[in-house]
Structures are given as C-alpha cells and as structure tokens.
Sequence to fold (285 residues):
Amino acid sequence: MLEKGEPADLKNIQMVKLRLRRQGRKGKPFYYIVAADARAPRDGRFIERIGSYNPNTNPATIDLNLDDAVRWLGNGAVPTDTCRAILSYKGAMFKHHLNKGVTKGALTQDQADEKFNTWLAEKESKVSAKIDSISKSAAESAAAAHKREEAVKLEREKAIAEKLAPEVEVTEEAAESTEEVVEATEATPEVSAKEAENTEEAVEAPAAEVEVKEAATEEAVEATEAAAETTEEVPAAEAEVTEAATEEPEEATEALKEETTEEPATEESAPAEEATEEKPSEDNA
Fold:
C-alpha cells in the first residue's frame, strides 16, 4: 500500500482515480483533489494532491495545478463525476482534448495553446461577470433589507408619536395654565398682601377665642371643685343626724325593756305576800 505523498508505482496499481478527499469540520467541508488508488477509501491514502475545492464560498473556490491534472489524465487516471466537473470548469479536460489532437497530428502545439488561451480568457470573463452579478444582487438585497428596516422603524416611530401625542397636549395645557397663574400672581401683588393681612387677623382671632375658652374652662373646673367640697360636707352632716336618730330609738327600747322586767317581779311578789297572810289564819283555826 502507498503512503501519503509516495511516488506512484503504476505497475502495481490497477486503476488510478482523480477524486475528492474530504477535510474540514462538520457543516463546513472543503476537499483536496487527489490522485489515489481506486481501492483506497475516500479519505484514506492517496498518491498525489493536485488541488483543493472549497464549496463554502460563492462562487466556489478552486485551486488546481493544471499541468499535474493534464498529466494524470494523459496517464489514464479516471476522474469521478464531481472531479470531472471541476476539471472541466478549470480547463483541464479541454487541454487534455487538445493534447490528443496534437499527438494525432490534427493540430500543432501553437494552435492548441492559442485555442486554450482564448477559451481561458472567455471563461475568466464569464467568471468575473458572475462574481459581479452576485455582488450586485447581494448589494441590492442588502439595500432592500435596509429599506424594509427603515419602513419598520418609521412605523414604530409613528406609533410611538401617536401614543405620546395626548401626553404632549396635556403638558402644553399644563404649561399654559401655569403661565396664566404666574401672570395673575404678578398682576395682583397688592391683593395677595391684603389676603396675607386678613389671614394673619384670622389667625389672631382664633387665638383670642382659644384664650377665652381656656379661661372659661378654668372657671368651670373651679366651680366643679367647690361643688364637690359642698357635696362632701352635706353627707357628713346627714351621717351625724342619722347616728343621733339611731341612738334615740335604742335608748327608748332599753327603757321599755327595763320597765317590762320590773312589772312581773312586783306581780309575783304580791301573790307571795297573800300566801303568807293566809298561812297564819289557818294555823289559828
């Protein structure tokens, strides 16, 4: 098996292919154009690298060694379909066709070179025109996108202005009212001074009323205290009278009790005397 970059031993190789060898990261591939054994895997060993292909740009970037590609084609290498399109785009297939005509004697080398240079100039002009059209379309799309953004911006500004319009009117009315108030205050300074005096008098009048009210409240408090003292003296006199009244009935009841105890004693003594008087009479009989 051949290592990378080893010279080719065509006797031991059944068929050589010109194909793409993938490189790059996921989603962003680019390819090497290589001459490799047909039995080798796609990204495996190769004999020689003759160019590169980057499809991530517009138009695609192709870097090809034209002489090496024509040499491999002349040695019998078979390109894959994608590689054939790339070689045709760069003119390798056309030059290989002209070299066949030279070998057959149909053309001279100068005629073949002249035809190839003419084709190459036309191809370059077409490529440049394509690049210009792509750049122009990109600029037009960018301008259209800018216009759309400007239209959207204007619509937003208009909507914001409509929302803020009532607030602006309110602020203008408030400013006008404040100006009117300022003019009124400047036109009537004397009235404000008189009002200030009236307010001072109005403040002093309530102060005098407050003093009168405080004096009246003090007199009322003194009157209530005097009434309280009189109410305390009256119950004391009433208490003495009630005590005297209670003592007199008690004395009367004690006197009645003494009289009632003395009367039965005299009544008992009387019968006893009668009994003593009767006893001697009986003895005499």
